[in-house]
Amino acid sequence: MNHNHFLMIFSGLVFYWVVTIYQPFLLDMAIAALLAIATANLHAYFFEKTRNDLAAASLITLVMALILFGPIVYFIVTISSAVSGVDPKLVQNVIQKVLKLLEEAPESLRFIEPMIKDFIQGIQITALSQDVLGIFGNIGAKSAIFIKDTILIVIFFFFAHFYGKKLLVYLKENVPMDEENAVFLFNETSLVMSVTSYSIIITAIFEGALFALAAYFLGYDAILFGILYGFASLIPVVGGMIMWLPIALFELYQGNIGQAIFISVYTVVVISIIADTFIKPLIIGFVNQRLIGKPSKINSVIIFFAIVAGLSTHGFWGMILGPAVTALFVAIISVYGSLRHRNIEEPSPNNL
Question: Does residue 303 surpass a pLDDT of 80?
């Protein structure tokens, strides 16, 4: 057997077993690596201040854990302890009361009637108790899995920053690709990931803070509802409605018509229209110009659909995977295009 063929077969077998062994951790490792790429400029900033790789990696990991994972853990712990005391019959009573109020609603509430009916359409009151109990029963298991993934991502994120420079040098020396093309692929992916990650975090914090003010005014847990809206705002089109509509329905159930109108109008006008439509593009522009400095060549519409596709296929973490895979795909096409033009401009000697 040819030595090269043996090496290829042996390498394939080793790669198969490596993937099999590390398969439970591959997604967490990929997310951590992509987040590390997205925050490479922050690592450079901390390294410039500390002149120590360990200190820089520790600081950037601490910042990422506090900003991104701290609210997630707070939300899971708070919601897990709260749902244990929820009576499913209360949900039934709320829906029945709201349906009755809709029949007697004044003209001032007619504008939200279609949205409320769409929200509760298809809900079977008789089966609601079992559905709610089933959802509550799954929260504990889902929370444990999510916390486990979060901890692993934080750990891998630290090592990605601590050994990042050595790993990049190793890949550049051993990957069968021109250094120029390898640098192009890395830079384009890094730019897209930086724009996406910073924009998502800043927008979620900003819109979550706006909703927290309204929740505080109505007497709810401002921190919890701010975190909930921050995550909900990441869902295109219907994200905000997931939060404000249930609160409006509950306020209607309690007879607080004014508060129901307030939360509806405030969220739609102040957050969905003003903040999301006019202020969010300014945030993305600020991220591009001030935090990153070099705008990505990928259209923002493509990034938007990449986020939507990632959310649909991989859930929360898909917001990171979607843009990264899309950026790599577009960058690879650009590399092939540049190689093709280079071959056309430099014909082989046989064609001369």
Answer: no
Q: How much is the pLDDT for 138?
A: 56
288: which DSSP letter? Answer: I
Dihedral over Cα of 331, 333, 334, 340: its sign:
positive
- The chain-wide mean pLDDT, for the chain, equals 75
For the chain, which residues make up each domain, given as ranges?
3-351
The whole-angstrom separation of Cα 180 and Cα 174 is 14
pLDDT exceeds 90 at position 211:
yes
Of 193, 218, 235, 212, the closest CA to residue 330 belongs to: 193
Let me know: does 204 contact 222? Beta carbons within 8 Å. Answer: no
- Counting DSSP H helices and E strands in the chain, the numbers are 15, 0
**CA 173/CA 166 separation, integer angstroms:** 11
**Rounded distance between C-alpha atoms, residue 75 and residue 49, angstroms:** 33
> Quick one: which of 113, 119, 120, 121 has its CA closest to 261?
113
Q: How far apart are CA 34 and CA 276, in angstroms?
A: 26
In the chain, % helix, strand, coil (3-state, to 5) comes to 90, 0, 10
DSSP letter string, 242-267: HHHHHHHHHHHHTT-HHHHHHHHHII
CA angle centred on 32, ends 69 and 41, rounded to 5°: 90
Region 55-61 average pLDDT: 91
Q: Do the beta carbons of residue 200 and residue 297 sit within 8 Å? A: no
pLDDT over 90 for what percent of the chain? 6
Long-range contacts of 315-318 (CB under 8 A, 24+ apart): 316/231, 316/234, 317/27, 317/31, 317/149
What tokens appear for 178 in the block? 């021109």
Higher pLDDT, 14 or 291: 14
User: Residue 256, Cα to own-chain centre: how many angstroms?
Assistant: 34
pLDDT bin (cut points 50, 70, 90) of residue 297 is low
Q: Report which of residues 343 and 222 the model is more confident about.
A: 222
Give pLDDT, residue 90: 64
Give the pLDDT confidence score for residue 253 in this predicted structure. Answer: 75
